[in-house]
Amino acid sequence: MQHLANYLEQHKDRFIKELIELLKIPSVSADSAHAQDMEDTAQAVAAALEKAGCDTVEICETEGYPIVYGEKILSPDLPTILVYGHYDVQPPDPLDLWDTPPFKPVLKSTPLHPDGAIFARGASDDKGQMYMHIKALEFMVAHDALPCNVKFMIEGEEEVGSSSLDAFVKENRAKLANDVILISDTGMIAPDVPSITTGLRGLSYVEVCVTGPNRDLHSGLYGGAVANPINILTKMIASLHDDQNHITIPGFYDKVISLSKEERNAMAEAPFDLEAYQAALGISAVYGEAGYTTLERNSIRPTLDVNGIWGGYTGEGAKTVIPAKAYAKISMRLVPDQDWKEITALFSEHFKLIAPPGVQVSIQPHHGGQAYVTPMDHIGYKAASKALEATFGTTPIPQRGGGSIPIVSLFEKELDSKTILMGFGLDSDALHSPNEHYGIRNYLKGIETIPYFYKYFTEMAS
Ligand code: BES
Ligand code: MN
Ligand code: MN
Asked: Which residues lie at CB < 5 A from ion ligand 3?
């Protein structure tokens, strides 16, 4: 596809400029102060889909933020690819840790990105990766090179649990019908090591509150005589892992599918440099479940992590107080075949059970989702592999991802479709962190690779 390389060369400055415009809108789904920005972003995505050549584009209202749907149907006899992505982004805070403001995108080069990277919230997760698909469509339509039907579904609630999507997918099964789902919302191993993510972890997210006395107390007058909710909460949390870093909730591992020796050996062949990993994070040692490697710990094993913990006095100086309440937000990453609702129930039951007399525990489940695995013998995997080989000149490496995209298992259940996770981000993109960025090379490689996926998938599916 020589014209593809030419087109990219000719239009890349515009592609970068357009993405920068999209990144300027602070589409933070977690913060209702940005409700208007969410609507504006949905409009911008819809306009981009229309300009790129979709025949129909709709902004579908939901109980939450709108889902942007677009399609170009050439013929009912041709295969159909459904592209999913999300236009919402994570909150940008802590703001003071950003070198440049999160919604004023700048292009800067770094040692890893000599061609430059765009620094902005959402650059990699997922506006930049989602926009590659719109630009790839633009190219294919402009060159009469679209080989199959395509549907786009770009949502605005991924970062807060995709709660409106369940109903939307169930109500629109026919509209969303497809032969494969293609998502770029994951990463690759290194700039020149293309990879296909073959699995995602599930998630159970809960908030807990421990209540002690009916008011905050003087820590001298009452200290030692009543349960301090923060002391209790931290003790309870600490007990959730044993000294081997196994999770102690009864039944937690019952449904975990263990990988065979062969599968674990295959995983161990993926390039991974422990020293570089530690250096990149500024840590002198890794930490985790006994008996597993770092790559296994962050992909094929379930976890339990405190995401936030608060209570009592945290202002300037000292205040001697026993707080009435202590809180924590806890996430559990899950693997096949753990069921997130079941795990949420097991957690709740256990957490209440381990509370000592003198405190009350309440648990508020948030969102969740199931884990997912892509079979490597699926033609979608093969098409992605061939496409990446065409543009990178090397066979991509399969890798199980540690993150979650709960919608993927829902797609499998409701639409009976497999999802191919062809991501172009890097772990160093600082997803969800200050100074998130996306390499220009990754962005352009993505745009270049996607049309090959369409071509090979259509050939294999026909
Ligand atoms: N794109 C990420 C998920 C991801 C990133 C998977 C890198 C694999 C590699 C997605 O936007 C995300 O952040 N998902 C959330 C889950 C959601 C329910 C809030 C996550 O994994 O924390
Ligand atoms: Mn994402
Ligand atoms: Mn994310």
From this structure: 125
Residue nearest to ligand 1 atom 1, measured at CA: 185
Ligand nearest to the CA of 405: 1
Domain membership flag for residue 278 = no
Instruction: State pLDDT tens for residues 47-102.
Output: 999 999 999 999 999 999 999 999 999 999 999 999 999 999 999 999 999 999 99
* Length of the chain, in residues: 462
Contacts of 355-359 with C-beta under 8 Å, sequence gap 24+, read: 355/210, 355/232, 355/236, 356/227, 356/232, 358/212, 358/226, 358/227, 359/210, 359/211, 359/212, 359/227, 359/229, 359/232
Q: Provide the number of structural domains found in the chain.
A: 2
Per-residue pLDDT, averaged over 7-29, amounts to 97
Burial class for 175, CB neighbours closer than 10 Å (0-12, 13-18, 19+): middle
User: Is ligand 1 within 6 A of the CB of residue 429?
Assistant: no
- Return the pLDDT at 163: 87
Domain assignment present for 279: no
Domain hosting 339: range is: 202-256+302-368
C-alpha R_g of the chain: 23
- The string of pLDDT tens digits covering residues 298-331 is 999 999 999 999 999 999 999 999 999 999 999 9
d(CA 227, ligand 2 centre) in Å: 41
156 and 251, same domain (yes or no): no
* Separation of CA 53 and ligand 1 centre (Å): 29
Q: Which positions ≥6 away from 315 have C-beta within 8 Å?
A: none
Q: Sorting pLDDT into bands at 50, 70 and 90, what band is 1?
A: confident
Which ligand 1 atom lies nearest to the CA of residue 406? Answer: 18
Is residue 14 a part of any domain in this protein? yes
User: 429 CA distance to ligand 3 centroid (A)?
Assistant: 11
185 lines ligand 1 (CB under 6 A): yes
Burial class (CB in 10 A: 0-12, 13-18, 19+), 234: middle
